[in-house]
């Protein structure tokens, strides 16, 4: 079959089975498939709304083409979100990653440059002075030395370069936003994922279960924000002991002041890097509170704490004592030393 036949099926509002999507995914990654045909297929899927089976199948194929990350067995966490919410928030999950790691949780964060936002994870890292083109071996070394590492998706997934061109031509979220957090080459045991489809939160948690996560939280905030937002309009699902169930949080009961999503808007990578540094230096703001909440959820998803509230308190303490800033500085130092060594060679 060709990609066109699958596109026709999807355009008729017929979802693909898991096996059909496996075939379609192989065609997407086949360099002989025209880019225009791939774009047409992705747009059709988006218009229909992607299903659990379609997402799981694409994630399986995409991960099969990823470079290997030979990590020792351990309790690794990723807090990468899907992006694509169009809300232009600052880099909440990237900032939170340093706070999570400051609490002795091994973070292997998957990320990319901006595709449908003003600043992707890799963009703000670069603005902070952090190198994003590490080899897989160096990524592991960074993790071993600092407790956190960042995997730039195009480096991990060589076949994504062509797909990235297609995604940029489309200019809006596609199924690749949804599969991104599912294709981390590390064998993750725990995960926090923000998605931009509140109605799909429980289904997404079921995909995580299929992919072997032991414990995870999926969240969609106000207006489909791919983070937990600072209001009562959060939809969350908890994967625990093989079951998916709803998780309810009350912002004010967690000691956080409510704020509109506009208060979390960021800017360019350079502007977001300033926000991130000021936050880790203890500057109080809605940005600070958003990082507390999302870090608290990640620590709870990881099993580090027994409640989201406990996670928030740990997050606050690690920022105000300078531990989180020290974690950032350790990664910057490693990165700068790495670049100096390369310049000498």
UniProtKB/TrEMBL annotation:
Domain Glycosyl transferase family 3 N-terminal residue range list: 7-65
Give the molecular function GO annotations. Answer: anthranilate phosphoribosyltransferase activity; magnesium ion binding
Q: Name one GO biological process term.
A: L-tryptophan biosynthetic process
All copies of domain Glycosyl transferase family, residue ranges: 75-325
Q: Which family does it belong to?
A: Belongs to the anthranilate phosphoribosyltransferase family. In the C-terminal section; belongs to the anthranilate phosphoribosyltransferase family.
Which InterPro entries is this protein grouped with?
Answer: Anthranilate_Pribosyl_Tfrase, Glycosyl_Trfase_fam3, Glycosyl_Trfase_fam3_N_dom, Glycosyl_Trfase_fam3_N_dom_sf, Nuc_phospho_transferase
Q: Which residues bind Mg(2+) 1?
A: 93, 227
Query: Which EC numbers characterise this protein's activity in its record?
Result: 2.4.2.18
Listed A to Z, the keywords are: Amino-acid biosynthesis, Aromatic amino acid biosynthesis, Glycosyltransferase, Magnesium, Metal-binding, Transferase, Tryptophan biosynthesis
* Residue numbers binding Mg(2+) 2: 226-227
Organism of this sequence: Ureibacillus chungkukjangi
What this protein is called in its record is Anthranilate phosphoribosyltransferase
For activity, the cofactor(s) needed are: Mg(2+)
**GO cellular component terms?**
cytosol
Details of cofactor binding: Binds 2 magnesium ions per monomer.
